[in-house]
Amino acid sequence: MQVGQPMKRDKKMTKVVYDRYQSARNRKSELHDDWYTQHAFYDGRQYVRYRGGKPSKRKAPTYRVRLTKNLIRPIVDTAVAKLNQQKPGWMVRPTGPEEDRIHKARAAERLLEFLYRKLKLRNITQGTLFWAAVTGTGFAHVNWDKSKTLTKGKVTGAPLVKVVTPFDVYPDPAATSMDDARWCIVKHSLSAADMEANWKGSITRIQAAAESANEDAWFDADIKGYISGGTVSEGEETYEVLEYEEAPCAEYPKGRKIYQCGLITLASGELPNGRYSLHMVRVGVAGGRFWGLGIVRDVMDAQREYNRTFSHIIELRNLAVNPPWIAPNGSLKTGRVSNRPDSINFYNQNYNKPERLPPVPIPSGLYELAQSLRQSIADISGVHDVSQGRQPSGVVSGRAMGILSDQDATKLGPAVSQLELWIESLGQCILEMCQEHLDPDVTLSIVGEARSAEVTKFHRGMLDSELDVEVQPGSMLPKSLSFEREMAQREFQIGALGPPDDPQTLIKYRRALGLGLTDHNADEEVGRLYARRENVLLEDEDEANREKVRVSWLDQHIVHIDEHLRACRDPAFSELDPEVQIAHEQHIAEHYRQLHMQAQGLPTYVAAFGEDPSAQQQPEQPQQPMPEAMPPEQPMPEDAMGGGLVGGGTPEMNEALVEGGPGVSPYGEEMSAYG
Hints:
By secondary structure, the protein is α+β, with helices and mostly antiparallel strands. 41% of the residues lie in helices and 12% in strands.
């Protein structure tokens, strides 16, 4: 927790902070009951209402069925998972056209990617979104913790990001968002050890203030209990500390921040970077309203009726299976009928024997009503079967399921917009804290784009004095991978991505699949790292280093071409020496030439034997001897009947026509084959 210097007792400021806290708490009292009830519905306790912070549940006869079919929990979990599905698309805008500022903006983006994993911001996002979905508003609190570290060994300090429940936040009652709030209070419950770690000697001063509280007429009994040790939890005293933050104004141009516990101001100072440490995300934004509506609020009534409908179905089933008895008064000797197997019920013969009433049928419309209520809950929340991993009835096409999933994602669009603004504000605050507090001697190892052993060195001087963080609009929208893959395949087949035989088209196709090149083929990671090292050597002004870069038949030419082209499209490439640019172009051209040779079917291994693939010729095939020409056809003599040889071909046919076989005249004269 970031703290300032301890100050002397200031009764006036203490009373101002406390009065503002009381005003905000009174306005939130009704909201607390609603939030407790909404959280109870998520937990499955859907017959409970909260009044004054205490649960109340109406009593019911023992025969009544109170069934709970909780549809709210999977809806909330699905919505939170879809909103947290994509990583934020960080963008840090350069504050000028200078090359140094462009490189610093890229370094800031790398740092955000590193901190997203190091600080476990995905878990923070999930916790914040949970409260936003249940109560309508979620908060994340950012501070600089000197006891943490981003590297092993040396303690250098690190950003501390925590999820704060809306119950502990008390904003300016006139605010519509954190942007126009004049002040905001966050309540922290700290143990005695934490109090001493943050503010040494604070426990002694708090106890002394509690003993002298009677001297202050305005200090009522509520505050006396508030500073006299706080609440007792599991044998350990906890102290409620108010973190008061006030936005910059004419009186305080840089704002102010105060930590207060009872009569004691623990620390006071300027608001870091003039920015609140509290960052808000809302689900279900209402115009002019600070607090969001959430998902649970709108489906609670439909969930109640859904539970009642199924409870009535179970009650009618019980009546149908075990209908009630009817009997004259005094006919039973035991006073009641036993339904146990093999039991004997004695009755008075002077009366009619007991008999059951006709069973009550279960109306079929109840099932239709239950299904209608279930559909209403899905329509209101925007989370249908396809979003929860279930195939909708009557839908078998993968494309149709993808369209339905996209429709659900579209309904979450407003929540995604709020989430992106929250991520943007959070990233800006984290970078500013790193810029101010990070040890300049610290070197961070940041994983590169290939997500493997690539390392980028980072230190505080690589951050620009002015930072402008932005999240790509729509980058956190949930996506349907199956639908995207189908559309990518279709675009590849019709040539929308480019000529199918172009290497760049294959790269575009794999990226459009949503897999990414490095995930599609692990070998490409090594190829990309090697190509990037070649880019560094090719940009060297020393010609000897540039000549070390050779195109080998072992290279993955498609991957190398893609990486080299990315380097050439970089704005910094135009600033290089013309000889360096020519070396790049010749290197890429050689990759294209060898790739073309491979496409022609020429073997790649010939380069290993010192042969030139371009000069390699196909081995000559042995010539087959040409068949000899048939002798010219001679005219056949005709017999006395004017006919020629009979038979027309095969010996069988000749045998069938004449005696003696082929070449025999029907008159017994032998003739040669050619007359």
